[in-house]
Amino acid sequence: MQIRVQRSGGFGNIPRIAEIDTAALPEQEAAELRRLVKQAEILRFACARSVPGNMRDAFQFDVTVNDGGNRYTMTAYQGSVPDPLRQLIDHVFGLRGR
User: Fold this and answer.
1) What's the CATH code, domain 2-96?
2) For 64-83, how does the pLDDT look when each residue is reduced to its tens digit (9 = 90+)?
């Protein structure tokens, strides 16, 4: 499973991108990422977009999951990111920082 998180927008519109391939991770970490993807229901809400709020310079988060030849993308905006999706985003960005 490959997971790509892109944050765009915000003041200055400086994008931040993190890409993780679970095949390159220890099994325990890969299992945690699969759990977070399942919890965020990316596969269920693929192609869904939350509605951008009235926040000036808000971030946009695009999360793409490639799993077994299938590709799923979900977009959410700062202020309306569901908590399970926020956990996945934070985890992927945290792994990228290691």
Assistant:
1) 3.30.350
2) 999 988 998 888 888 878 88
- Distance CA(63)–CA(45), nearest Å, equals 11
Burial bucket for residue 13 (CB in 10 Å: 0-12, 13-18, 19+):
exposed
Helix (H, G, I), strand (E, B) or coil at 31: helix
**What is the model's pTM?**
0.83
Domains of the chain, by residue range, sit at 2-96
Percent of the chain with pLDDT over 70: 84
Classify the phi-psi angles of 79: left when phi > 0, otherwise alpha if psi is within -120 to 50, otherwise beta. left
